[in-house]
Amino acid sequence: MTAEQKYNLALFLATLEDMLCTGYASKRAYSFSPDIVDAAAEPAEEQKEQEPLVSPALQEPVPPDSLSRVANEVYICTACPLHKTRTATVPGEGVEKPIVLVIGEGPGAEENKSGRPFVGPAGQLLDKMLASINLSREKQCFITNVVKCRPPFNRDPQPDEMLSCMPFLARQIDLLKPKLILSLGRISTQWLLQTDEAISRLRGQWKDYHGIPFLPTYHPSALLHNEMWKRPAWEDLKTLKARLQELEK
Asked: Model confidence over 35-88: pLDDT tens digits?
């Protein structure tokens, strides 16, 4: 309270007392000092209201994404019906910074048992195909599929199943940052390129997938059923090898 406010209040009370007791007001002198306010001790109410309220949870650092984190999320995923019939999830495997990212359509029977991609007869052929151009899954590649669980009876993955798994694949590509992508078969190629063009017309031609050179070819399982496609597939591998040589330079 200011000195003036104190003086006016005292004068009013004294005048009221005089009028009640004697009937007239007497002259009185007063001297007051203003209150001393410690501004640092208590902030103004307006300042309090302006202070932001931050939840302690929002201040905790967000852990970075990783391939193991993606794999753990795949392991517990129930986003599509494939989780009801799977034995094991198959997120993928390989080196963390691959030269080539190999993408198939989905796990088969052997993969569903082991949790590893391309370990059955088609996988054995894939290893030979990669070795023919001096690549190995252990040193230069990462191998995965569009869907991470086996479709029953090896049927084609359905669009809603691929859509459910697509965030996992997108995160893997972002983390891996491959130099090149090798797409195996009609399903993965058409889905990733969002086209219905036949694999026979797409194979062997470089495409662009979000800034990454993308080469489609036949799926190894198709080569096991049709010997006539092995020659075109070998031509595709030579196209891949030539691009690898360019990268080495």
From this structure: 555 545 445 554 545 545 445 555 667 789 999 999 999 999 999 999 999 999
Residue 63: its pLDDT value, please? 82
Using an 8 Å Cβ cutoff, are 98 and 143 in contact?
A: no
Give the chain's domain count: 1
Q: Report DSSP letters for 44-99, one per residue.
A: -HHHHHHS----GGGGSPPPPP-HHHHHHHHHT--SSGGGGT-SS----EE-SS-S
Please give the single-letter amino acid code of residue 182: L
Buried b (16+ CB within 10 A) or exposed e, 68-106: eebbebbeebeebebeeebebbbbbbbbeebbbbbbbbb
User: Residue 121 maps to which CATH number?
Assistant: 3.40.470.10
Provide the whole-model pTM. Answer: 0.76
Distance CA 187, CA 116 (A): 20
Nearest to 146 by CA among 127, 113, 170, 178: 170
Cβ partners under 8 Å of residue 205, min gap 6: 215, 216
Beta strand 141-145 pairing with 180-184: unpaired
Host domain of residue 239: 67-248
